[in-house]
Amino acid sequence: MTRSTATSAPADRAATALDAVRAATEPLLAAVAGLDQRALAGPSLLPGWTRGHVVTHLARNADALVNLLTWARTGIEHPAYPSRADRDADIHAGHDRMARVQREDLIAAGERFLHEASRLDADAWGATLFHPSGRPITAAEVPELRLFEMCVHGVDLDAGIGFADLEPIELLLEIAVRARGEGPVTLVADLPDGRQASFALAGTAATEVRGPAAAVLAWLTDRGPASALSGEPPALEPWG
């Protein structure tokens, strides 16, 4: 059974995820650096979005999570986005900028996120905030949200990063399962190092579903087929 990061002290939990964010930054920026203007204008793996949409979303997501960290640090409510419409408008407005501008924007936004994270003390990491979806979270979950966005949308770029490349895969699985909800389904992921991670996943019946970690994560995020797994995978709602 995997150990949940949610049981760790908030500051320790945040530190673990922030280390992973720093490690994930290099391959993400390398992938984006390889995209010229034409490539950025080409389709991503997300329906209706170009790669430029994905890059811009990643930058604006960093800024949105800075807002949540500022809320945690100051105690003054500061939602991630003013509204869903504002979020979508910002992504659309930035998706067709010059390639150099998009790359520099992504770099700067990531640096702003890490800087704001460095300003939080141990007490602030335990603060209660609200996810853009409306569900309550602790500040310690915010770095995990950033890691997840960077990794999964790095795959969405269709620029050389695959689910098998993502690290730490066990933490990413835990985040995805948390978003899906807990239930009677036993979900077993075979990790690259030979270990297994087991999760309780929402579903309508007590059953076991199993597969390679990368295939499990792809399925959980609505980016891979249930046919890649063994057992009887439950029907999942569209991701996001």
From TrEMBL:
Top-rank lineage group of the source organism: Bacteria
One GO molecular-function entry: isomerase activity
SUPFAM superfamilies found in the cross-reference section: DinB/YfiT-like putative metalloenzymes, SCP-like
Domain Mycothiol-dependent maleylpyruvate isomerase metal-binding, chain residue ranges per copy: 21-157
One Pfam family linked to the record: MDMPI_N
Keywords: Isomerase
Protein name: Maleylpyruvate isomerase family mycothiol-dependent enzyme
Organism: Actinokineospora soli
Phylogenetic lineage: Bacteria, Bacillati, Actinomycetota, Actinomycetes, Pseudonocardiales
